[in-house]
Amino acid sequence: MKRDGFISYSHKRDIELAQALQRGLHQLARPWTRRPVLSVFRDTTSLSANHDLWSSILNELEQTRYFIYLASPEAAESRWVRKEIQFWLDNRPLDRFLIAVSSGQVAWDQEAGDFDWERTDALPDLLRGRFTTEPLWVDLTRIREGSKYSLRQAEFRDAVGTLAAPLHGVGKDALDSEDIRQHRLSARLRRGAVSGLVVLLVTAVIASVLAWQQRNEALDRARTSASQALAARALETLDADPRKAAQFALYAEKVKPTADSAQALAATVAANGHVVRHLKPGSDEVSAYIGSRSSPPARVAISRDGGVLAYYAAFGSRKVHIYDIRTGQSRNPLPAQTQESVGGEFELSADGGILAVESGVNHVQLWDVRKARQLWAGSLGNNPKELSNAHKGFRSMALSPDGRWLAAAHATIGADSLQISIWSRAAGRVVHEELSGSQNVTLGFEETGRQLLALDEDAGSLRRYDTLRGTWGAARKLDGFQAKSDDVILAPGAGQAAVRSRDGEVQIWDLVTGKPIAGSGTGALDEIALPGAGVRFVAGARDGTVALYDRDLSRDRVLGAFSFPVQDLAVSGDGRWVAAGSDDGAISLFSADPLRAGAVLPNADGLKAKSLSTDGRVALRAVPDERVDVWTVGKGDAGLRRLMGIPKAVNFEESAVSVTADGSRAALLWEGELSLWDTRTGGQIGEPVFYGSSKSGFSGELFFLADDVHLVGIWEKGVLIIDSRTGRIRQTLSDESHYTLLVVSGDRRSVALLDRTAVEVNVWRLSEGGRMKRVRTAQLGVGSASNVSVSHGGDMVAVTQGDGRISFIDVESGRITNGAVLSQSGYGLLVFSRDTRLAAQAFSNRDGVGVRFWDTRSGDVLGTWPLKLRAPGTGVGPRAKWTYAEIDMQLAPAPEGGFLALGIDGSLVRRSLDPDVWRRDLCALAPEPLPKAEYERYLGDLAVDRPCPA
C-alpha cells in the first residue's frame, strides 16, 4: 500500500502529539462522504530490537512519499529514529523531508547554508551538511505545551496545513479553501435534505422540524468553520500586514464569536498597537507592476512639530492628502501636481503650514496647507528636457523650517555637475544659482532656517550658505565619510545625517563635529528617517517592516508592517510620529510611544508596581516611620490623584486601606485596629476600634461595600462586616480564621473568600435586606492556591493554584473550567472583561513583561500582549537595565472597565478588555470590506454583513 507520509518520533515523549498530527493530516480537507484522502503511517507498537519489526517499518518507508520528523532532543538521540532517518537520507529525496519541532530548538544559519549546530539540539547530527537551503519546518512547541490538538485551534490547524500542503500537492491557501469547501458541501447537502423533507410536510411534520434543526446545526458548523479559518488567516498575516490581519479578525468575529476570533482580535489589536491610522490601503493594481524596475510612487512627509502629515500615492486619487495628527481629522486635499511615474521630493515646513512638491522636471509647487491654496509654482533652474538623466528629477530639495527659502540640487544643461538653486519667498524668485562641482549633493536647512547645508557625497565635504548674506562658507572635510553613497538623509535642523551605502549599510554623522556617531548594527535598510538630534532613536524600514532603531542602529521595536516593501519613510522632529508608504500605495501613520497600545494615565508621583489595591480603586505608598500616602484611581484619563497622607507609621505589607466611592472617607486596618479618616481635612474620625489581631501578611483585606457604610475584612476571629458609623459588627461571614485571602467585586456587592490551603472558595452576595448571603461554595481539590479574583458583577471567580493552573468558576451554575498548566506561569490577580468572556493576567520572563488572555469558558490561552518598560532616565528607551527578579507589573480592574497596568517603571496604562471595543478600534483602522476574492473564498455560501459600518 502506497503511503503519503511517515511520521518518525520519540516514543518516550511524543506519542500523543504524533497521534494528533496523524489524525489532523487525515481530517484536513477530507470530503465528509469519503475516507481520508491521505495515508500517513505511524507505528503503534514499542520499537524493541526486533528484526521483523524493522522489516515492516522498512517496507513502509520504501512506499512513502514524504518523511515527517517530529523533532525533539529525545528523538535526536533515539536509535530507531536515527535508523529511519539514515534510510531516508540514503534512498529518498531530501526535498520530501519535513520537520515538525516538538521541543528543543532548531535554528538555521543563513550564511553557513546549514543548521546552526551550536543552538540546534532537536535534530540528529546525521543531518549536518545535508541541506543546502532551509527545509520546510513548523514549530509545535507551544501547541504541545498547551495540548491544543484540535483543528479548531488556529495554531494547530495552521501547522497541520503547512505539513499537509506538500502531501496534497497544493498550496496551503488552496488546501484551506478545500477544507472550507467540504464544510460548505456538508451544509448544502443538509439543506437539500431539509428541502426534501419539506415536500413530505403533511406526513412528516416532526421530521421537518428535525431537519430544520439539522439545517441550523449545519449552518452553525459552517459559520464556526469559516470563523476559525478567518481567525487563522488573521494570525498568519499578522506580521506581514497588520491592516489585512485586522480585516480577517473583524470578519471572523462577525461570522461567529469564538475563542479563535477573540484570539485573532486580541492579537491584531496588539499588532496594530503603534498604528494611529491606516490612511490608505494597498491597491491590487500593483500586481501589474511586479517585475518592473520601479514601482509607482508613494510619498509621505511629516511636519517637524508633528502636527501635520501629507501623503500621496500613484494608485487612487491624484491629489495630495493632508491629515491633522493632533485632531485625527483629514483636511481638504491639495490638487497639487505630482511626479506620477517616479515620484519626487516632498517636504513640509516645521509647523506644517507650507508644502513644497516637486511637480515636474526641475519644477516646484508651493502650497498653503491650511487654506488649500497654491502660493507659487515655477522652475528652479532651466528645464533640461534634452538631458539623458532628466527623468531623475531633483537630486535633493530642502524647505526652510519657516517656509521662506527653498533650495534644490538638480541637473542643468551643459554641465556635468549638479546646480544648486535657492528661491526666496520674499523675492518670489530664484536669488542664487551656482554649480556644485559634484553629481551627488544633499541639501538641508538648519533649525533657524538662516543657513543652508550642502553635503557633497562624492568629496565627503560640507558647505554652509548664509541666506541673509547670500554667501557660502568654506568647505569642511568630513574625515572617513563614505563616498558615493546610495542615499543621504539630513535630520530636521540638519544637525545630523544618515548615510546609506549601496548595500544598505547605514552610518549616522554629527555634522557639527564632522564625526560619525553610529554605525549600522542591524544590517541593510531600505529606508531610514531621522528625527531631531535630541531624539534617541531613528526610524528604518526593511522590506515591508517599519521599526525603530536606537542610536547604535540596533533594532528596538517594530511599529508595523506592509505586504510590499516600504518605499518612503518620514518621522517628526520630536520622534513621536512615523509615516510610511509601500510599493502598492498603502499609507500608514504610527506612533513611536512604547505604551501606544493603551491610554497612558498620569502618575506624577511615580508609583511603582504592587501599589494598587485588588479592586483597582486605591494606590498606596508607605513612608517609613511616618505615614501611608493614599491615591485614588480616577475614571477616564484622570489617572492617579493623591488623596491624603494618613499619619500612621504602619507596615505597608501588613496594612490595608479602603476609600469610599466619593473619596470623602478612608479606612485603615493595622494590627487589628480600624480607624476612619476624613480625606478633606486629613483628620481622624472618632476613635479607632480594635477587633482582635488582623490576619497579617496579605494585602487587600479591607473594602467598603456598595453602600459606602459597611466594611468587610479578615480578623483573627473571622471574616467580619463592620458598620463604619458605629463600629459595630453587622455580620460575621465566618467565625473561622482559615480564610487567607479576600477580594470584592467591582460593583462592591460580592465577596470571594479563599482558603489557600484547602483550595476552597466561598462567594457571598449582598441581598435586598442589606446582609450578605452565601451563593456558592467550590472545592477545587488537593494542593494549594496562591490567588483569587472575582469579576465586576461577582458572577465569575478565578483561582490561581499552586501549579500555575487557573480554575474559572461560574458562580451561578457552579461549573468549573480548568485552564492548561503553562510552562511560563503568570502572577497576581486576573482581571475579567465585563461580560466575563475574557480574563487577563500579568506574566514576566527574562525578556520583559506582558499580559496573557484567557477564554474563561474553555480555559484556553488566547494569546499575549508584550509590554515595553521605559528604561531609567530615558523616558522612552528600549531596554530596561533590570534583573529578571526586578521585572514586575501589576494588573487591576479599571473603574470604567478593562484593566490598569502599573509597571516597575511607574508607567500606568489603561487598556481595554472588551472584544466590542477591540472591534471598534480595529474598524477605525481598517474599515474597508473584505476584498471580493477573499470574501468568496471564506464566506461564499454565507450571508455576512460587513463588520464595520460604511
What portion of residues is helical? Answer: 10-25%
Strand order of the largest sheet: 2-1-3-4-7
Q: What radius of gyration results from the CA coordinates? A: 33 Å
Number of strands: 63
Fraction of residues in β-strands: 25-35%
The number of domains: 4
For CATH, the homologous superfamily of the largest domain is named as YVTN repeat-like/Quinoprotein amine dehydrogenase
CATH topology of the largest domain: Methylamine Dehydrogenase, Chain H
Overall shape: it is globular
Q: Main sheet?
A: 5 strands, parallel
Structural class: alpha+beta
- Under the CATH scheme, the architecture of the largest domain is 7 Propeller
Q: What's the overall average pLDDT, rounded?
A: 81
* Helix count from the secondary structure assignment: 12
Protein name: TIR domain-containing protein
GO biological process, one term: signal transduction
Pfam families: TIR_2 (PF13676), WD40 (PF00400)
Keywords: Membrane, Transmembrane, Transmembrane helix
